[in-house]
Design a protein that fits this description.
With 387 residues, this protein is an alpha/beta fold. The strands form two sheets. Strands 1-7-6-5-4-2-3 form a seven-stranded mixed β-sheet, sandwiched between helices. Bound molecules: pyridoxal-5'-phosphate (PLP).
Length: 387
Amino acid sequence: MKKTSKVIRTQSQRSQNREHSVPIYMTSSYVFDSAEQARSLFANEENGPIYSRYSNPNTDEFIEKLCVLEGAEDGVAVASGMAAMFSSLASFLKSSDHIVVSRSVFGSTHQIVTKILPGWGIQYTYVDGTDNNAWVRAIRPYTKMFFCETPSNPALDVLDLPFLGNLAKEKNIILNVDNCFATPILQTPLTFGAGLVTHSATKFIDGQGRSLGGAILGNSELIEQVRFFTRHTGPAMSPFNGWLLSKSLETLSLRMERHSETALWIAQSLDDHPTLSKIHYPFLSNDPGYTRAKKQMNGGGGILSFVHRNGLEGGRNFLDRLEMISRTANLGDSRSTATHPASTTHSKLSLDERLEVGITDGLIRISVGLEDKEDILSDILQALETK
Ligand SMILES: Cc1ncc(COP(=O)(O)O)c(C=O)c1O
């Protein structure tokens, strides 16, 4: 079967009720038939659920499907995207290790890297992720991991995945890619040499803004280390969210196609707009990331951002004028959403820090939903009108 069929047909074993759609296993633990079975399950001599902090049929099914899409051997489901980012770092990094991080990463990832890990003796170097030489220059003898997002949130920087994958392999460094914006439908970092792929499943994977979730995927050896960490520290995904997100994966490819098609059309339609000084969208032919994106992605994704010429005031006015598009911090929803990072998600950064990651005062991030494309564009156009 093709991946898109396999993800739809993958299902955990049917119960005695022969259900077509998988039930939700809301149970914290599982019964052992005998003392011997309990022993052998704990000894990993047989497979099966023991306790929902370790595994559960719903979260297992979610991971099995995500592994199909990412081309991964194994994975672990966790409670949120940040639980995935943190577990993927903390499972491998030890005191005096060093990590190289692309400067354009999600705000909470930035806090983990700059505030939490250094307290445990883990050093970091930030680089401009789009500059291949910067990654080479940043490597130290104790560099254990490269961490990046591509396309990045919210500036949509596109990093050179084949280059980073090769460099990481050559130097025996784990390349860890947050694949939240592209999803495995548009980009599979493991095929370019990444060791780990991390997700906020809260975004496009859920796709309807209902639940939080995260995942870490990779080869069996690395994931075993992550599983040890999560089993004993407890950031487990709930069975209900596992059930919801597993069903969501069955429609992910259709949704990503439509998100990408509409977002490209909107980006092209706004390209010469007099109120905007810049538009970022990886599949827009004049975008700095275009050539790379075309090589490593199957579509540009559902996020675009643009810069309002009237800076902070222009960005805030634009948000206030929106009629259909929701003003909210989430993204990846079937409903289009808009965010003004400088006055909200990134308002705690200094101006210099914001500019370093491409967040100018007038930057607006749009998560293009599944509504009719004409309705989305006309809301954006009317909100851009200056009286
Ligand atoms: C790129 C990226 N990574 C990680 C996260 C964190 O995910 P969560 O909110 O599910 O913890 C986000 C949230 O917006 C994100 O955009």
